[in-house]
C-alpha cells in the first residue's frame, strides 16, 4: 500500500509518502510545503533585451522595479510621511507641514478632508507602491488553493494513481475554521486527481500514540519528543539511512515528524 500522510498547515504543510508492506515501510517522499508563498514579483526592466529578474521592491502601473532600477525612474520611493495610511490619521496642522515640505500646492484656508485628498493624489501620481509580502493569516483562500495545486503537482508529479490512501489531520474547534477549509481543499484536490483514491480524516492526537510515553506533556515537549522518536527510528532502521541527514538538517523537523508519526500510527493500527 502507498500511504500519503498530511499534517495540515499554511506556511508549514507537512507530507510523508510511504510504501508499506505489513508493518514494514519505506519513505518515498517527505517534506514541508509553504502555501503562503506568492509568485515572486521580479523586476521587469529590460537590460540588453533581457528582463532584470531581480526581486522587486516597488511597483507602479503594473510594472515592477528592483531597488537599483527604481532609482532610475521619475517616481519617488515613498517616505514614511508619504503613505496614505499615515496621511489619513494626521491633523490639519501636520498635513500643512507635509504639503509645504514636498511643495504640494494648496490654497488657504483649506479643510482637512480636502488637503488629505490633495496629498493622497500627489502620492498616487508621484510615488512608487511598495511590494508588500502578505501575512499567511491574511492570504486569501483562492491564492492558497492555487499554491496547493501547484506545489502538490510538483511534488507528486504523475503518481496520483499509485497512491491508495491519503490521511489528513482533522481540524476541529472554532479557532480552526480556516484550517478546516484548507483541509477540505486538500481532500478535493486528491479527489479530482484520482476519484478512486481513499481519503480519511484522522484525529491529531493519533500521532501522539506513536510516542514512547503516555504521560501528559506540554505542546512544546510533545514536539521535542516527536523529533526524538523519529531520530530513534532512523538509528534503528538502516533502510532509512538516506533520510536521516535530510531530517537532521531540516528547519522544520517538528512538522516532518508529525506527518511521519501520523502515517506510522495508521500503518500499525488500521487494518
Automatic annotation (TrEMBL):
InterPro entries xref list: HJ-resolvase_A22, Mrs1/Cce1, RNaseH-like_sf, RNaseH_sf, Ydc2_cat
Mitochondrial resolvase Ydc2 catalytic domain location: 4-63
Matches recorded under Pfam families: Pox_A22, Ydc2-catalyt
Keywords, in A-Z order: Hydrolase
GO molecular function, one term: Y-form DNA binding
One GO cellular component term: mitochondrion
UniProt entry tagged with the keyword Hydrolase: yes
One GO process term, biological-process aspect: DNA repair
Protein's name in the database: Mitochondrial resolvase Ydc2 catalytic domain-containing protein
Amino acid at each position: 500500500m502507498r500511504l500519503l500522510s498530511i499534517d495540515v498547515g499554511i506556511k508549514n504543510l507537512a507530507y510523508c509518502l510511504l510504501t508499506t508492506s505489513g508493518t514494514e515501510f519505506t519513505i518515498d517522499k517527505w517534506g514541508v510545503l509553504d502555501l503562503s508563498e506568492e509568485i515572486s514579483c521580479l523586476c521587469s526592466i529590460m537590460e540588453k533585451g533581457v528582463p532584470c529578474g531581480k526581486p522587486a521592491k516597488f511597483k507602479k502601473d503594473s510594472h515592477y522595479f528592483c531597488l537599483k532600477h527604481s532609482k532610475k525612474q521619475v517616481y519617488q520611493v515613498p517616505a514614511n510621511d508619504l503613505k496614505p495610511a499615515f496621511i489619513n490619521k494626521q491633523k490639519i496642522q501636520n498635513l500643512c507641514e507635509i504639503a509645504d515640505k514636498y511643495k504640494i500646492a494648496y490654497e488657504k484656508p483649506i479643510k482637512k478632508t480636502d488637503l488629505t485628498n490633495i496629498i493622497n493624489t500627489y502620492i498616487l501620481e508621484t510615488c512608487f507602491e511598495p511590494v508588500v509580502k502578505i501575512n499567511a493569516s491574511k492570504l486569501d483562500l483562492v491564492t492558497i488553493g492555487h499554491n496547493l495545486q501547484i506545489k502538490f503537482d510538483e511534488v507528486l508529479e504523475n503518481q496520483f494513481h499509485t497512491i491508495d490512501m491519503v490521511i489528513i489531520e482533522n481540524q476541529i474547534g472554532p479557532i480552526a475554521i480556516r484550517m478546516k477549509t484548507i483541509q477540505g481543499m486538500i481532500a478535493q484536490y486528491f479527489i479530482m486527481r484520482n476519484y478512486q483514491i481513499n481519503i480519511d480524516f484522522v484525529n491529531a492526537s493519533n500521532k501522539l500514540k506513536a510516542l514512547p510515553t503516555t504521560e501528559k506533556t506540554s505542546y512544546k515537549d510533545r514536539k521535542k519528543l516527536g523529533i526524538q522518536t523519529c531520530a530513534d527510528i532512523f538509528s534503528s532502521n538502516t533502510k532509512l539511512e538516506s533520510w536521516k541527514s535530510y531530517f537532521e538538517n531540516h528547519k522544520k523537523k517538528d512538522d516532518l515528524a508529525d506527518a511521519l508519526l501520523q502515517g506510522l500510527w495508521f500503518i500499525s493500527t488500521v487494518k
